[in-house]
Protein 1
Amino acid sequence: MNRDHAKRALDFLADMIRFKSYSGTPGEGELARFVVERMQRLGLEAFTQEVKPRRMNAIGIWHGTGGGKSLLFKGSPRESA
């Protein structure tokens, strides 16, 4: 990874952690919308999905050019019981 990519990645992560995005809080939806907007800037088809009341996922789809296999990245904290 070159320096420019590393700096942009760190800036993005720094922007993300500024959201108070505790589960079920308004910040969770704000962060999801922020991530969707960033994915759209990169050219992904992106949208939010409400999975429970006030619980949002940010989903992005980057369409390939061939008939290859799909890859799914999932990021979520483990919830304690």
Protein 2
Amino acid sequence: MTAPVTAGSARGTAPGVSGFSPETPGVPREDLLRALETVRDPELDEPITSLGFVAACTVSSDGDAEVRLRLPTYFCAPNFAYLMVADAYDAVSALPGVRRAEVVLEDHFASDVINGGVAAQAGFAQSFDGEAVGELHQLRADFLRKAVMAGTDQVCRPLLAAGQEPAALLAMTLGEVPPSRALERLRQRRADLGLPAGDDAALVIDPVTGGPVRPDALPLHLRKAKITRVSIEANAGICRGMLGHRYNHTQGQGETVLIEDSGLPADS
């Protein structure tokens, strides 16, 4: 976070009620939603918009932006929640025309601590003093590595289904893979980790070191990639179901449905 943020108690929008202000000359609603689309649930690796986590987003004619977030349960992990609130603030406050940004997490057992910590730019460890052992950089990196593994499966499965031999995947580069949304997503996640993501980068790599995968380790690597992808998608489905039940299936701002057979939300 790079500038002051005001976080207050949850007022003005009832739980589960989505809302937004009319477009203003300074900051169109579409720009606000596009900024929030860049914020992902760290565990599910999906935008908070497509997951339905954005209950409301408004912006005044003076450039005062307010975002209200909701989560599937009252007890969602506070470290994940903190990352999403802080990232949402960073994304919104960076928009040209936004003078002040306020991001409020509602209906969560740690809402006051999280909202106060983001407001004070205190960081996770100071916000949860006596409970947290450090900041969340390593947690973010660990989930990005899982996203790289899941993305590897999403890209490699169609290749294998088309008759490509598993061993041939080791010789392929990203530039040799047919363009797809899954491929672009994999590139982005690898770039976020500082891993090779250019056309000449190997398709299959170790997500920790960025180095090549040995031929004898490839079968296990592909199995782990599949298991990781299935686990993330299953957790995302569970969270969508719990959120829908909690908020009576009230649609969030920017919420989308999954594209059939892709495993990807329409805006990821």
